[in-house]
Every structure is written in C-alpha cells, then in structure tokens.
Specification:
About 30% of the residues are buried. A seven-stranded mixed β-sheet has the order 1-2-3-4-5-7-6. The chain has one domain: Aminopeptidase (3-Layer(aba) Sandwich). The protein is an alpha+beta fold and about 170 residues long. The chain has four helices and seven strands. The chain is globular, with a radius of gyration of 15 Å. GO terms for molecular function: acyltransferase activity, transferring groups other than amino-acyl groups. Pfam families: Acetyltransf_1. InterPro entries: Acyl_CoA_acyltransferase (IPR016181), GNAT_dom (IPR000182). Keywords: Acyltransferase, Transferase. This is GNAT family acetyltransferase.
Length: about 170
C-alpha cells in the first residue's frame, strides 16, 4: 500500500475527529476521557499556528483514490520563548489501519516536517503500556527521559503511567 502525507485542512476535521474518538473510546492512548466534538477538533486544528501544524496520512489505492487513515501533529511543547524549537508530537492511526506500517510512515513524515520547520527537539508523551508507540519511539531513536507513575486516567477508567521521550533533530 502507498501512503501520502499532507497538512490537514478544514475539510479533514470530521476524519480527525473520528480517528481521535476511536482512540479515546478504546482507551490506552489518550487522557481524554470522553469523545471530542467536531467543533472541539476544529478549534484544536486552528490552534496550530506555524511552525506547528496538523497533518493527515492517506492510503492511496491503485486508482489514485485517497482515504485518511491517520493524523499527526507538531504542537507547542511549553508556551515560553526559551522552548521555541522543541515540539510535542502526537499521532493517531485509524483502528483498521494499525499494524500496517501507517504509524512508521506517519512518524517518519512528522519528524521530517519537524526538521523542515526548524525544530531542534521532538518530545513524545505516551502511556507507558502503549506497546505500539513505545516500539515506534525505539525504532526512531528516541530516548526515554522520564516515567511518571499513575499520572493519567483514560476513558476506561484505567490509571496509567506516562513515559516521556525525546529526540534531538
């Protein structure tokens, strides 16, 4: 399967909402405990001002048709000028597309975007038992720099440890 990567637009808000809410409902990858509305996702998308941005990953079929199968974001790490150049990463893959290389393609593309946008460090904050995301952190050379026990609850009511990762870009 071929994948494509591009910056998200207003037309993508429903797909962003659907993919994110599937992760929220399943639990294990978001500290949101209830699904988000389309309007909340639209506001989130609009809050990403350059050099930060939201992107979609699309599967491209043999006829050139495209289906959004994931999204990712470069977000403000900490809102103080001294942290400029450090970005918080996020990525979510549609349930039916997990385990098919979409996460690897998406994270590679996201890191390329971070470098193009002049970022010097990328940080990922991940539930410590999220094996798929932890594997991606290792694959791309991230270093774990912290673990916060019992830090966040997900939609299932499970209290989860948070792991903190960084990569020098």
């Amino acid at each position: 399967m071929e994948y494509a990567y591009r910056q998200a637009t207003e037309a993508d808000v429903q797909a962003l909402t659907d993919i994110y809410n599937a992760a929220v409902i399943k639990g294990g990858s978001s500290a949101d405990t209830t699904p988000r509305t389309v309007e909340q996702r639209r506001d989130w998308l609009e809050s990403h001002r350059s050099p930060y941005a939201v992107f979609v990953t699309e599967a491209v079929d043999g006829d050139g048709g495209r289906t959004i199968v994931g999204f990712s974001a470069l977000s403000v790490f900490y809102d103080r000028a001294g942290y400029d150049g450090v970005t918080d990463l996020a990525y979510y893959i549609a349930p039916d597309w997990q385990g098919r290389g979409v996460g690897t393609f998406t994270l590679r593309s996201l890191l390329d975007e971070a470098r193009k946008r002049g970022m010097r460090k990328a940080c990922g904050i991940i539930f410590a038992d999220n094996a798929g995301s932890i594997a991606l952190m290792h694959r791309f050379g991230f270093t774990q720099f912290g673990l916060m026990p019992a830090a966040a609850t997900d939609s299932t009511g499970t209290m989860r440890d948070m792991s903190y990762w960084y990569l020098d870009l």
